[in-house]
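Ticket 4471: requesting a sanity check on a complex prediction with guanosine-5'-diphosphate-alpha-D-mannose. Repro inputs:
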Amino acid sequence: MPTDVQTRPAVEAAQPAAELSIVIPCYNERANVGPMVDKLDAALAGIAWEAIFVDDDSPDGTADAARAIAARDPRVRCLRRIGRRGLASAVIEGVLASSARYFAVIDGDLQHDETRLPQMLGLLRDGRADVVVASRFAEGGDAAGLSAAWRHRLSAVGIALVHRLLPVKLSDPMSGFFAARRDLFEQTAPRLTGQGFKILLDFLLSTRAAPVVAEIGARFRPRTEGESKLSILVMVQFGALLLDKLLHGMVPLRFLSFAGVGAVGLAVHYVVLSGSLSAGLGFGAAQTVATIFAMLGNFQLNNVITYRDMRLRGRRLWRGLGEFMVVCGVGAAANIGIARTLYSENDGAIFAGLLGAAIGLVWNYAVSSTLVWRARRR
Ligand code: GDD
Ligand code: MN
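Returned structure tokens:
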């Protein structure tokens, strides 16, 4: 009979169970993996630690580099995710794949000062904090590693915004370097938004416990190998995270994004329609051209923004475009049919028109999400 979990004797291995799991999100960081492990090894002497590299199938072979080390060093593991991208979601999966009492999150590009880890662990161990944030703006910290002046300004604007939402006062809520009790994260995990770069913020905005949060100063070093992955899309995701937390997760972000893209489509439609009309096209032809442009634009925007995590490429892109056009065509027919019926029944044109459009939108969203952008298909 198998031993049950509680009574199973501890395995007397050469390797003690880890007290601290270090989760390292990385994308195209091949050159930094080896030095990262060496630095952890030096900084964490006397501590039972493990490191989990979470790689999103980087084309530069980051996962191979991590796995090559893992093959020799049992403290190191590699989690390779396929078909997905995202710092925050990578961290979530890394923490959920760990089992030590405490975890820390640190960038895989050597910008965070790993020599602060023992102090961070110490605060958790003593029960003086449930979460410890390494802050660039607390005493002993600095943000010199932010590559450009605009990054400093952007960071300041972000921090000011966040202070309105966050129940605890933190000098650096945007930090990606922190440590915490794993059980706390585990409880919070189902409520996390998992969008973009700011997993600490997501964690603090999502937890229902009132954790004691401590800050220690840490230097943010300049990057020497590889490049930053911050992009416009990541900034949009930051806005989405705040919006999601403001709405308490009641409206799916994807739906909001889909509706926003729809609004852009309306503008495209209007511009192309009036352009074609003034170019001398008849109304029928102008309307057809405008519809095609709006659909193409909407498809692309949805593919890149709304469904970026399951973005269609190559042959699947063309098939998806065909399906999208059919779905939206049916949506438009339903929209017009419903609006007509309502209009003839009680002739409120605006009401009938808006309701028709709303029903068309929900139809397009629901069917696109299940048919056009469904997870992993061949
Ligand atoms: N798995 C995975 N997937 N890792 C990613 C992804 C992704 O999509 N995007 C970025 N990473 C990894 C990078 O490889 C790096 O190890 C780390 O996450 C941070 O990404 P950078 O692109 O280097 O971020 P940064 O230097 O601009 O910003 C950092 O500093 C901020 C200070 O405000 C991040 O650590 C932020 O979290 C931190 O707050
Ligand atoms: Mn970086």
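Notes from triage: The chain is about 50% helix and 10% strand. Leaving this open until the requester confirms.
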